[in-house]
Fold each of these.
Amino acid sequence: MQEQLSILIQAQYPLIYLNTPEEERAERAIASIAELKPLRRLFVWTSTRGIVEQGQTSSQNSGAAQHNTESIQAALQWVIRADQKDPAIYIFKDAHPFFDHPVTVRCLRDAVANFKGTQKTIILMSPVQVIPIELEKEIVVLDFPLPDIKAIEEVLDQQLGQVRTKKVSAETREKLVRATLGLTQDEAEKVYRKAQVTNGKLTEEEVDIVLSEKQQLIRRNGILEYMEEDEDIDDVGGLEELKHWLQQRSNAFSQKARNYGLPQPKGMLILGVPGCGKSLIAKTTARLWSLPLIRLDMGRVYDGSTVGKSEANLRNALKVAESISPMILFIDELDKAFAGGAGSADSDAGTSSRIFGTFLTWMQEKKSPVFVMATANRIEKLPGEFLRKGRFDELFFVDLPNAEERRDIFGIHLRKRRPDLDRFDLEQLSKVSDGFSGAEIEQAVIAAMYEAFAQDREFTQLDIISAVKSTTPLSRTMTEQVAALRDWARMRARPAATSVAEYQRMEF
Ligand code: ATP
């Protein structure tokens, strides 16, 4: 990116938008570009100080603010008026809240016109991308990427230099570096410092501290969330086709797979009746593939406080996800997340469709090993673009469990709570629970346990049967919805359960 930015500045681009939450690091990168030939003076504007000249190339006024330049309009007028001929870079930090004023936009256009043929560039630096329509054709947008491995290594070296610790092996170094990928430079520094303060050293043993600190930081951003993956693929009853598909791809992100010529898997969409194990399968996949599982909370992406904030949120979250890759990105209820889609009539349709566009473009262009695992309960709300071939590697349909699968699911949940399975008749439980989802089966077992616990005794087969009988499963209250989903999926999705898969193969 630094190279790209340098080329734009050398090529006399007058207006650049630099997207980044890392002001200091970005400013350092720009300062080093300013030192290239021809030497450029560097000015920084903030609404608190006005215009301040920086660095070694500056005049004697360096460090002092230009009088009366706190207002962005005054600052831009100063920049345009300044009769200095020297090449210069003007960084405007957080100018985006002022773009709703027509004079600000006009001043920026004047500056662009004024800079033609000069070695002067304005860089609008902000963590949020907001571009006034009038400037769309004049501005070049760049994302300042999170620190790469090399930059993180420098942070680690600096930190190790401050710790009196014996030399760390190359392997430990790599683990410590990888553990902070996805964080800003400041955050990486903090995480290393915390690990070092906690244990008084920075070695392999501290990798876990670094990882848990990173999890906390990622949690704090509120949009991405680490999911615990304590469930095993054997904890999922039925869904044999789906499990087989996942098992086949266990090493799909390895170098061996690349050398073999296999493409990197992009992702899968799991459609299905609520409570049939869609989220469960995501968790177990993470375990099966030994990859971190991170949930993208689309509800939190939306933020109406500033125009463009939602897209910036999504872009940042995807950037963090990529920097942690290989990983699994879990998006629950894709149908709700993108209900607005491209042609929505919702009041926030503009935001929804921009978010949707941002996400689709990312899916299309992503090269990093991020496997998107998305789930959806309703297809009528799901934008058609997601269902087009090639977007996801596979579209699976998870139906209500059949008799055999219900028996397995009862077995799994009873075994988790009581090892002496023999006292339960799983066949009978499966028979009485026709139409139940996996989640409802689990709930019936728990309800039976509560009943017996309240009477201070062990729970029995009869307790479970009576819990089942007193439950009306969703499939009965939502008959039409379930039938519609099944009809739709029969033609277009791959069944997750073997029995259905075989049945369909015979039918077509
Ligand atoms: P929703 O669409 O409501 O999010 P879902 O399909 O994602 O539902 P899960 O959240 O995975 O369903 O299921 C809830 C719980 O039900 C699981 O944590 C698990 O305990 C149980 N469950 C569901 N399906 C199965 C299954 N096939 N095997 C074992 N347990 C299951």
Amino acid sequence: MRLYGALEAGGTKMVAAVFDENGEVVDREVFPTRTPGETMPELTVYFKRFPLAALGVASFGPVNLNRKSPTYGCITATPKLAWRNYPILSDFRDALGVPAGFDTDVNAAAIAETALGAGRGLENVLYVTVGTGVGGGLVINGKPVHGLIHSEIGHIRVQVSPDDPMPGGNCPYHGPCLEGMAAGPAIEKRWGVPARELPPEHPAWALESDYLAQLCATAMFTFSPERIILGGGVMQQEFLFPLIREKTLKLLNGYLCHPAVNNGLADYIVAPGLGTASGITGAYLLAREAVKE
Ligand code: ADP
Ligand code: ZN
């Protein structure tokens, strides 16, 4: 049976896994993200334990996805300086000698959710993670969108609420962008308490759902996805979903006509079908694509 390596490369941890051709996880191990000099040998040793047909890498970004570029497969302007301009894809290809697929962590998650998760049967899906950052992956006509670079929907401008005690936001590049307002660290900085400790009645969540509703309405007006999937640590607070749906409907204000909208967005703004496994499953699907190519 063929085996496929999958890596979800994150800023704090690397999730490495081996899948069989039925999509079952055969093995899985988590490594802390240190410098490439420390972490890459650990990952290579791990993957070399298995006779892999291919590897898929779903990486934190920004990354270079342009196959015609000499630096295709590099991590680019990350604030994690040791990884800046690091050729993660070509180093894995050289070390393992197998075909390797590559995309952003969130595009990979969008691919997996579209193929096997909450977007099954659809061709146009937006996946957004609300965690340490806010990142979005977009599948349109069944394919992940790369475009000029790749989506950075987490950095869209949002309208700052007059009730926000931290109107300047927390993004080092943009201040009050969506990530600067709504990612886990922004919530913690604003209220002085980790997001998971804030009770449902805390005013934090009215603000949070306000900002995420702005994202959803903007996405609906721009790419018109058939479904929006919201994952990541902050979305573990499940009571956010009805708040976000309600506020998104207010922002749409009756302008979009579709049964999904008339239905109160209950089947439209949803949690991931693969739980926290969207990214690593997407990496596996990238490996499968790499074999076909
Ligand atoms: P990452 O984005 O680093 O991959 P996560 O998606 O788990 O990881 O996001 C981590 C962030 O999500 C942290 O800022 C944390 O405060 C927040 N978070 C994690 N779990 C919860 C929770 N149950 N409720 C609210 N916020 C959470
Ligand atoms: Zn930003």
Amino acid sequence: MIDNMFTIITGAQFGDEGKGKIVDMMAAEYDIVARFQGGDNAGHTVVAEGKTYKLHLVPSGVLFDARLLIGPGTVMNPGILMKEIAMLADNGVEVTPAKLGIDAKTSIIMPYHIALDALRESKRTVKIGTTNRGIGFAYIDKVGRDEIQMADITDKKRFAKRLDELAPQKEMAIKEMGGDPKIARSQVDEYIEIGRKLRPYITDVSREINLALKDGKKVLAEGAQGSHLDIIHGTQKFVTSSSTVAGSACAALGVGPKRVDNVIGVIKAYITRVGEGPLPTEQKNEVGEHLQKMGGEFGTTTGRPRRCGWFDLPLAKKSIDLNGYTGLALTKLDVLGGLDVLKVCTGYELDGSTIEYPPELSDDLARCKPVYREIPGWEEDISGVEVIGGLPDNAREYIELLEQLMKVKLEYISVGPGKKQTFMK
Ligand code: GDP
Ligand code: IMO
Ligand code: MG
């Protein structure tokens, strides 16, 4: 087990790498688990004691004693959070203010953000394929200093004042895009009611984390989305609106970078992407169908089928650089079982040259033709394997090859959605 104080976990690909599962597995060892960016565009699956929890906002450590925090760099839809808290309560998991803290400065996703997200996407001639949760427009308002914050919705007067200030420009924007301007002032009572309920949850996340670290406690930062969806370094414009890489955890949680002990990347044994944008190793054939079917590759948040392809080393190299991973968790190895030949993309052909690192621009990445190294697959179902030695030789060779190519230690290998289906390399 990783024995350190401040660990950051991020997705090394395009999201849905299995972060929820890995965070749940590690959470027992930590005192605090904190979400630092994104919103309910995230869908993190935790499978425990036969139950499947799909978490969008509550950090994936919820089944343990850890204190959970939602940091000020996130964008939060309070209605979705309330539903999630209720879903957990129905399953016997009480998310009290002693358990969950929400930063006073967390940006609130308003109904107009969701309306604008949908309207904007419907007008795009080249779609992004957003999750339609209002994420981009909530971050626009954060950067534009027009956000409504968590603390605002707990105070009826302050909320009304802020909305009076903001609603006219939202009405104009919605109207201009052909939507119903009344959305700008809709659900106000609902937000105030939720604000009243969430008031006891408000905290100063940076202060809590820094105090915990000074006290020798362990903190786990749970990333959402994936490195190539990063707003700065991802495959623009097909990205999300937050910084998804490890460095963002420090800035967003208000913790100095020298505090970081470990950065763990979660990476699938192949690659998937939901939404639009380049995916050089995409397999629109029976291999893609195998991965989608065996891997259950349908979006946790939107239910959309995920596009699937072979493991992409150039993209992995880039996310290793972007995050400075100290270790990796390789997930969904079981899904490759039953394929005769496995391919690993080791480079791309672009404009007559072979390159080993992704070109910076999305248009160029979309033109890249993968160069593959082939290795034999295995027939066996490995989902019951509990130690590395129990894997078929070809599965072990596949892992060794990835580790050797990526030059980062594979700390964990995952062969199924359950907690027991993970072992140390
Ligand atoms: P996240 O967004 O990174 O937390 O990932 P998601 O929860 O959206 O998607 C990962 C999916 O794969 C979930 O349905 C998990 O239960 C499942 N999963 C995680 N690890 C494994 C694994 O090793 N093998 C298989 N077959 N499924 C896994
Ligand atoms: P987790 O945390 C996979 C994708 C969307 C779309 C793009 C922009 O579960 O890994 P947005 O709604 O964020 O403006 O959409 O980003 N996307 C994700 N893909 N996993 C996610 O989260 C994602 N969150 C957003 O599909 O392509
Ligand atoms: Mg997901």
Amino acid sequence: MLRDELYKNGIGMTSQRTRERLLERLFEEGIRNLHVLEAIRRTPRHLFVDEALAHRAYEDTALPIGHNQTLSQPYIVARMTELLLGGGPLDKVMEVGTGSGYQTAILAQVVERIFSVERIYPLQERAKAVLKDIDIRNVVFRHADGNWGWPQYGPYDAILVTAAPAEIPPELLGQLADGGRMVIPVGEQEQHLMLVVRDGEEFIYQQVEPVRFVPLLAGAIRS
Ligand code: SAH
């Protein structure tokens, strides 16, 4: 029990200093939203990776989470969250690509409700368990191909996609509320993070910066 508690808090594996250094680094890299920085400070990232990688959880690097997928580096998680929040507070947010659930955990602390879609069932199950463990309750999950979004609860004030399509799926654009914002990596060999803002029937596209994400794939799988 004591060991479990200590592990949950990250004691003995990562000093408070290591975590503070990560925040300093994010600030140096230009992350300014204090809600986002605070969410990162509070969230035990080591719980979202395999125990063998826990000692690297507070480095600003991407880490493998199995099934050929990766947990994005903290800078990218922070940047995407900050961009999503750029238009003001958000109520309903759809996330495509739950993965480890780390990005979900950060987002869950700065928006009201999240609808998170993941195509790989075991990843989703693990993310659900970790989020429950750290008391995050404003997320609902769907095991499905996120190319189609989650129309039942749309339109969404914001959509965050954490895997890269060659082109933005039209169904996702269709589920964005008027004035809503989507942050999504787009491209194949060369990818860019894009911010899309909906204005009535028009979409305004802004290319933010080059990124490297796993591809947005088709279909949902059980294992
Ligand atoms: N945000 C995640 C990182 C995810 S890696 C984290 O913080 O850990 C990208 C994730 O997108 C993977 O889990 C992958 O399975 C998922 N994914 C890829 N294509 C998808 C699709 N069409 N629908 C839903 N999820 C998808």
